[in-house]
Design brief:
This protein is mainly alpha-helical and 444 residues long. It has a single domain, classed as TIM Barrel (Alpha-Beta Barrel), CATH 3.20.20. Helices cover 34% and strands 6% of the residues. It has 14 helices and nine strands. It has helices at residues 2-18, 47-50, 68-71, 90-101, 165-174, 185-190, 192-200, 220-237, 255-265, 290-301, 318-333, 341-345, 378-385, 427-443; strands spanning 152-154, 156-160, 180-183, 204-207, 245-246, 268-269, 274-275, 311-312, 337-339. The strands form four sheets. It has a three-stranded parallel β-sheet. Helix 1 runs antiparallel to helix 14 (427-443) and helix 10 (290-301) packs parallel to helix 11 (318-333). The chain is globular. The termini are close together. Keywords: Carbohydrate metabolism, Cell membrane, Cell wall biogenesis/degradation, Chitin degradation, Cobalt, Glycoprotein, GPI-anchor, Lipoprotein, Membrane, Polysaccharide degradation, Signal. Residues 369-417 have a biased composition (Low complexity). It catalyses: [(1->4)-N-acetyl-beta-D-glucosaminyl](n) + n H2O = chitosan + n acetate. Residues 1-16 form the signal peptide. Its main location: membrane.
Length: 444
């Protein structure tokens, strides 16, 4: 048996000795070397349990969050005009064109918004018609989220990272409470440390577009850009996780826009069934007061528990966060289940290719994730049960971006946004695998 095992291992060891070393690269930033596209053994073979990939990241090393490489190739933050369409990756455009060709994207006229007012559709189009169904006018599209499950508060905050984020995160940590952050891509560029903190706390990261515009007033390509670049920045900041949810600024979506989000990027649209108007607390004049918000919250939280509450709240300012902090005890005292979007609407799955911020990540790009393997919600349980064993190690799920090789944010070339690179390996890792195989064979 020893001789047989040795003979079987020799050709594999020869392959390992010729496989290029990752640290042989002469430059510090490079694409990862590819492993074979699939194992020789069938997927249900026990060997796959030994060499599971995607442990807490997708196996790709990303640029450090906040570094110049991290933000390279993305649109300028808070630019006043449309995003340069030459920046949009070809794969995103192809996916949009495919969806249009399949007639999966309704041919709805693009409305205009004058002076920040509600969008007005061309040719007298009725925003509440079944063809348009504008959420701005309270028309509900099948598949979009408005209400929570009975007895739940779907906790989320818009417009982060912003002035109130640090205070909000400290409060949530003190209560061991998770939430969903609907992030603005432009704000992420300016507040990378807050993005890292959100993720490390285990909160869900979701999309609130790149520059907070009325999405129904944008062309198909501009909708793709606003969603896609925000998704990509979240992906590159979280070890390759792909957002599952998005919320349109001002709650402005219609059948065309929601279809683009779903058909191109696989995201579910989230609106709300109660609005605090807390974003106006710092406006001049404000449209509400802290007392009014507390009164409304008390009414909602002591009233009927069906449907569940999806309350629009913001992390824009100290005042808006104070309003939430004042209402939070009412949620607990009245026995509401307070949870993020992934837990309530995603089957306890926070991302399209990962169950949580600590579980395994499927290697996928933004376009292919919607059709890829679905994450296992049980990974959340597995990750928590293993947390103590791995506490002494640096968690690869934290978006620290450490590592010799980095995949930058989208470059100006379309291929720059593709982070679906294969895992890297070294001679030593191959040798370890082969030695383990020999030992297993000796014991067989």
């Amino acid at each position: 048996m020893v001789v047989l095992a040795t003979l079987l291992a020799l050709p594999l060891l020869s392959y390992a000795s010729t496989y290029p070393r990752h640290n042989d690269h002469s430059h510090s930033h490079s694409e990862a070397d590819a492993l074979p596209s699939r194992w020789y053994h069938d997927s249900d073979h026990p060997v796959h349990a030994l060499f599971r990939r995607g442990d807490e990241t997708d196996g790709v090393s990303y640029a450090a969050v906040g570094s110049s490489e991290w933000s390279k190739g993305f649109p300028d933050p808070w630019q006043p005009n449309d995003i340069d369409e030459k920046l949009i990756p070809a794969k995103w455009v192809d996916a949009l064109n495919d969806a249009v060709a399949r007639k999966a994207i309704p041919n709805v006229g693009v409305p205009k918004s004058e002076n920040g007012g509600n969008p007005v559709y061309p040719n007298g189009g009725d925003p509440n018609s079944p063809e348009i169904c504008s959420a701005t006018y309270k028309c509900r599209i099948d598949g979009d989220v408005w209400d929570g499950p009975a007895g739940t508060v779907a906790l989320s905050f818009d417009d982060g990272p912003s002035d109130g984020t640090s205070q909000l995160l400290s409060f949530l940590a003190s209560k061991n409470q998770k939430t969903t952050h609907f992030l603005i891509g432009s704000n992420m560029i300016y507040n990378p440390d807050a993005v890292k903190k959100m993720f490390e706390m285990g909160n869900d990261l979701a999309v609130h577009t790149w520059s907070h515009r009325y999405t129904t007033t944008l062309s198909n390509l501009q909708v793709v850009a606003e969603l896609g670049f925000t998704m990509q920045l979240i992906h590159n900041s979280t070890g390759g996780r792909i957002p599952k949810f998005w919320r349109p600024p001002f709650g402005d979506t219609d059948k065309r826009v929601s279809a683009i989000a779903k058909e191109v990027f696989g995201m579910t649209t989230v609106i709300w069934n109660h609005d605090t108007d807390d974003w106006t607390l710092t406006e001049n004049p404000p449209q509400t007061t802290a007392e009014k918000i507390q009164s409304d919250m008390k009414k909602w939280l002591t009233g009927s528990k069906s449907p569940g509450l999806v309350v629009l709240e913001h992390e824009l300012s100290k005042q808006s966060v104070d309003a939430f902090m004042a209402a939070y005890p009412l949620m607990i005292e009245n026995n509401w289940k307070v949870a993020p979007m992934g837990e309530l609407f995603g089957g306890n799955v926070s991302y399209q290719n990962a169950a949580s911020n600590t579980g395994p990540v499927t290697l996928n790009n933004l376009i292919d994730a919607k059709n890829g393997p679905k994450p296992n919600a049980n990974a959340n349980v597995d990750a928590s049960s293993n947390s103590s064993a791995s506490a002494s190690q640096k968690s690869p799920s934290k978006p620290s971006g450490s590592g010799a090789a980095s995949v930058s944010a989208p470059s100006h070339a379309p291929s720059g946004t593709s982070a679906a690179l294969a895992l890297t390996t070294t001679t030593s890792s191959w040798t370890s695998i082969l030695l383990a195989a020999v030992v297993m064979m000796l014991w067989t």
